């Protein structure tokens, strides 16, 4: 019995490792390309996988040409405020949609779903006009603006709230908690992993958001990592190694955020489940 | 008594409205108004820079129905969705379950499977172009050594959509996996312990405990994955140019909308295309919401 | 309770940061301008463009301009081609276009005819530094709508034949020169093509400006007639396109549809020759591999000796809504003056449009036969354009690619293209 379990664990590892190789390929390729010369990067015959010598100057050039400190700051500020707004407002709305009954609930939730169905590209010009009217182009606020509320987050957390047992809040209400206290003290902590997932995705989506920062923040010192990256690659003949070096420099903060937060899954609700 | 209940109810109403207010106000200003502007614009032959729009009634819609490229785009968009969503969700669910247990190194796996989501689109495109390259690409290299004939993965109209879908699957597995992992955390451990005592097999546990209890999250993943897939644009835009022979067999509705609205400055027609897309997505989503009662298990 | 307090405090702190982030760390150019004005009459002029290689060089010109005009600051903003136009469109709709920016022949009509651009006619008349007679014929005209001049030529670009010297040496062939004709090109392409498809003689990608347009005009055909009708049904046009496509049909060129793939096919030695515009120079010059192995030559002539190349020029335009038209004009005037144009050529940004200044550009790239780009202007053809060029240009690709891949008769495809194009032109 024990042996059989060992074999299945090993098999699982093999499958996961093969999958991991496929998933990590582009990242590996990015790192390797960032250390190649231009001709190595496009060479196909012979097929060059490892650079002959590591071209660290690709990184030096990219760092010299871009104010990365400024880019990191702008990007983190944008991510931070978008995550904050998304988590806070979405959790509130999601709880109301999941557990409170009030007139217009279904209609309003329909609006939330409706927003998600529309391709984001149609919002760019109208939202630009709003920011422009406020005179806030080229600011951190402009970067945060489209992410002030999140239909995605509202829908996601609603699903999490709906998955929680009803008895919990009923007992909280019997203990004399009002609606807000029940939400804030009892229900919110229970959806921690949902909140973390939402935080990760909000951070990720704002990190990857390209067109908006490019168009609303035209000044180079108000750019984000991805918009600056897009500008590097906009030259007619692409210098792949430098582009990839910039991409590597841009990626690690996001990976770091993920690695830190995914731990929350393990320590999250799983243990408290037993106490119910 | 009656009076007391209604006071309590009113209290709940007020809290409800208060709690949804920030989100709803934000959505209306940021998104809903622009959507109706788009709908409005779809009845116009758009002038430049928002001025000089000429009302043409249903003209844009008539043109759209006769435009065979729009129907190619509908077919491609639906095809892409059907290829990507089921595969992604099945793999992601299995992966999430595997990585939710006491497996050694699960943190590393979780991180690695998430990496494709973090990679910049420009880098992703370049890597896949390199993998797919018909002359010396890695995939053809491997196929060749297995004795299978080389293929033109990107420019061959017959396989291009599949190639694009593979990229789609690869880059969205992480998304579904993380959400499902989060959903799995909500399942109380004692459910499994109880069924262990009953001697239920792992497979049975999966279908009788895991799937029903993770179903609210699964429903969310399904709905959002379909919507995201229906709005596919970036990868196709970067991989397939209008010059490519595979253009007609890969162009998506959002791609067509983008070209018409931004490249050809024909905003009215672009808006009509968005409305078509919106209609399709709405139909699919409404069907899903109706069907959820059959399989989604809310507490 | 404690947790609640902490979170409230945290929220308060964050909101303060956000607000102050907008206030104190304001990086808005408008704000900057206003503040500067209060303190001493300084004005910031924004200058938007889409080529990051050139932007780096123009920064030097801007620095020098700022030194001479201490009350004007130039703020250069770069975006890639697609985002540039999307952003410009949004800005124009909101009435907040950059003060000065690049204009292209594909878009001039859209912006010019809709009152987004400042009419420069009077400024030019009054100026002692700018005279449209100093620019190659046709370039200034691109930016003239009903007698009003909306932009001043900044540069021009032509197309040349690039070749891999190493591959030519291996094959023992003489490098391309001005004696080459279509036949010489084809012969060389045959000799440079290897049977195992590991090397092709020519890179005939599906591209108009850096591709079949050149062959069309060399053959005496045309893409658009003077009275704005399609030239695709012209027999000579069809012949030119057929000649270009024949490289693919004869197996002398791979089928290439993607813009970047064309440059890559040269860089990795897949193709020995290819057509590239002069705007590629600043990029090519930064790659050691290109510098060592490549050079360029004038385009081969048609077999009857007719020469042609497609040329086009960008313009500097001023926004109609700029708050500082005089300062903006000063900057554009400097960029268009003999001095400014010479400086840009020296730095190697692009082939300056001002007559006589272009030679300096050749000196900026001594590693290549850059002069050939300038020599070709003599017989160059303006890139075909109409009021909404990109609409029919894209559709033309869609209709021609079947013929390009050898699946359809070129003549039939051209006739379809002509019908489509005439319809599009009528709708303008």
TrEMBL record, chain A:
Q: Which residues cross the membrane?
A: 12-32, 71-95, 107-128, 140-161, 182-207, 243-261
Cite a single Pfam family from the UniProt record: BPD_transp_1
Would I find rRNA processing among this entry's keywords?
Answer: no
State the compartments where it is located. Cell membrane
Give every ABC transmembrane type-1 domain span: 72-261
Q: Name one GO biological process term.
A: transmembrane transport
Question: What PANTHER family is this protein classified in?
Answer: ABC TRANSPORTER PERMEASE PROTEIN MG189-RELATED (PTHR43744:SF12), ABC TRANSPORTER PERMEASE PROTEIN MG189-RELATED-RELATED (PTHR43744)
Family membership, please give it. Belongs to the binding-protein-dependent transport system permease family.
Protein name, please? Carbohydrate ABC transporter membrane protein 2, CUT1 family (TC 3.A.1.1.-)
Q: Which organism is it from?
A: Lactonifactor longoviformis DSM 17459
Higher taxonomy: Bacteria, Bacillati, Bacillota, Clostridia, Eubacteriales
TrEMBL record, chain B:
- According to the entry, every stretch annotated as the ABC transmembrane type-1 domain falls at 74-288
Name the major location.
membrane
Transmembrane spans: 12-36, 78-99, 111-131, 159-184, 205-229, 269-289
Q: Which organism is it from?
A: Lactonifactor longoviformis DSM 17459
| Membrane topology recorded in Swiss-Prot or TrEMBL | Multi-pass membrane protein
Q: Note the InterPro entries from the entry.
A: ABC_transporter_permease (IPR051393), MetI-like (IPR000515), MetI-like_sf (IPR035906)
Q: Name one GO biological process term.
A: transmembrane transport
Q: Is Cytoplasm found in the keyword set?
A: no
- Annotated family: Belongs to the binding-protein-dependent transport system permease family.
One GO cellular component this record assigns the protein to is: plasma membrane
Q: What keywords would UniProt list here?
A: Cell membrane, Membrane, Sugar transport, Transmembrane, Transmembrane helix, Transport
State a single Pfam family of this protein.
Answer: BPD_transp_1
State what protein this is by name.
Multiple sugar transport system permease protein
Instruction: State the compartments where it is located.
Output: Cell membrane
Transport keyword on record: yes
TrEMBL record, chain C:
The record's section on InterPro entries has: Bact_solute-bd_prot1 (IPR050490), SBP (IPR006059)
GO CC terms of this entry:
cell envelope
Where does the UniProt annotation locate this protein? Cell envelope
Pfam assignment, any one: SBP_bac_1
Q: Which UniProt keywords apply?
A: Signal, Transport
Indicate whether Signal appears among the record's keywords. yes
User: Where does the record locate the signal sequence feature?
Assistant: 1-21
Which family does this protein fall into?
Answer: Belongs to the bacterial solute-binding protein 1 family.
What is the protein named? Carbohydrate ABC transporter substrate-binding protein, CUT1 family (TC 3.A.1.1.-)
- Organism field: Lactonifactor longoviformis DSM 17459
The upper taxonomy is: Bacteria, Bacillati, Bacillota, Clostridia, Eubacteriales
